[in-house]
Amino acid sequence: MERSNEDLMLDGNAVGGLLSEVFGDDLTAALGSCPDCGRHAELATLRAFTHAPGVVLRCPACDGVQMVLVRTPRGVRHQTRVVMQRR
Amino acid sequence: MSALEWQIATVTKIAPETAKVKSFTFNLPAWTQHRAGQHYDIRLTAPDGYRAQRSYLIASAPERAGEIDLTVELVEDGEVSTFLHTAVRVGDGIEVRGPIGGYFVWDAATHGGPLLLVAGGSGVVPMMSMLRHRAAAGATVPVRLLYSSRTYEDVIYRAELDGLAAKGDGLEVFHTLTRSQPSGWTGYARRIDDKMLGEVSGPFGAKALTFICGPTALVEAAATSLEGAGLRTERIKTERFGPSGT
């Protein structure tokens, strides 16, 4: 499997603050299921790509995009594919 | 006030750790006890409204009330680290929010061990928070820290790590120096590899709770190696901080 920009990637941990702006809570320890491969783990374990104009969270198993967050003048827009479960 | 709102922290101390690394003590008007391994976001706003924001791992123990230490490495072309290193003075107010992160954390009372810590460069910062927490909590969980630095002078918290290890209460520190070594150096002298990880993690076997923090390439290599050696993926927690090399 070819991975995207491996040197630049961070862990989901790194975007806990941004997630809190969108979801009102620090969700890095929340569990999520990848809609592509079904991998089930904490959002902190996703790969975070933060060097683009937005932030992309990808599955470490299948590289599928699970969430995209973009800061706009009217707040943070997000497209969320990961199925989350708070605990 | 929620931990996730911005607040103005006051810088009360700036301490050089190495040529490129400084520790900043921030007094927090809305202090919330953190967990070892968490981070704070720092946000700078220019007069024209331009904003730059970065995350920095907490170095101090959760037991210290009202303030935190963030240890910051000066990154070439790094907007926030350059500002912190060159412009910030004691008494300045800085916008911060935190503590953030519920995964890469270690609580002495609930998580136990044995604890395997693998750090590259300033990736030692959250490990220091864990070791300070362990000492403050009086815990004797066995810990082995493998810490990779470029040179002897680049080793952050060197004296404090020596002191903690000298107590003989179950903490062992293993240094590797990748670029140059002082004469008489008896530690490792190469990048972290399978053999080194095997030697350091060996006594703990597959049951070690593992934290790895450092440049992305180091974290990838160490995590892959330890998984190959039989450690369970769920027991390996990682914090990558990007492409800077060690």
Chain-wise SSE layout:
The complex is a heterodimer of chains A (87) and B (246).
Chain A: E1 10-11, H1 16-23, E2 31-33, E3 40-42, E4 47-49, E5 54-58, E6 65-72, E7 75-80, E8 83-85
Chain B: E1 7-18, E2 21-27, E3 39-45, E4 51-57, E5 67-73, H1 79-86, E6 93-100, H2 108-111, E7 115-120, H3 124-136, E8 143-149, H4 158-166, E9 171-177, H5 194-201, E10 209-214, H6 216-228, E11 236-240
Parallel strand pairs in B: 7-8, 7-10, 8-9, 10-11
Antiparallel strand pairs in B: 1-2, 1-6, 2-5, 3-4, 3-6
Kindly list the characteristics that best describe this protein.
heterodimer; A: 87 residues; mainly beta; five-stranded antiparallel sheet; three-stranded antiparallel sheet; 1 helix; 8 strands; B: 246 residues; alpha/beta; Elongation Factor Tu (Ef-tu), domain 3; Rossmann fold; 2 domains; six-stranded antiparallel sheet; 6 helices; 11 strands; 22% helix
Task: Explain what you see.
- The complex is a heterodimer of chains A (87) and B (246).
- By secondary structure, chain A is mainly β.
- Chain A contains one helix and eight strands.
- Chain A has one helix spanning 16-23, and strands spanning 10-11, 31-33, 40-42, 47-49, 54-58, 65-72, 75-80, 83-85.
- A five-stranded antiparallel β-sheet of chain A has the order 1-4-5-6-7, with helices on one face.
- In chain A, a hairpin with a 4-residue loop joins strand 4 (47-49) and strand 5.
- Chain A is globular and about 35 Å long.
- The model of chain A has no long low-confidence stretch (mean pLDDT 87).
- With 246 residues, chain B is an alpha/beta fold.
- Chain B has two domains: 7-100, Translation factors (Elongation Factor Tu (Ef-tu), domain 3, Beta Barrel); 108-240, Nucleotide-binding domain of ferredoxin-NADP reductase (FNR) module (Rossmann fold, 3-Layer(aba) Sandwich), CATH 3.40.50.
- Chain B contains six helices and eleven strands.
- In chain B, the strands form two sheets. Chain B has a six-stranded antiparallel β-sheet, covered by helices on one side. A five-stranded parallel β-sheet of chain B has the order 9-8-7-10-11, sandwiched between helices.
- Chain B starts with 6 loop residues before the first strand and ends in a 6-residue tail after the last strand.
- Chains A and B meet through strand 1 and helix 1 of A and strand 6, helix 6 and strand 11 of B.
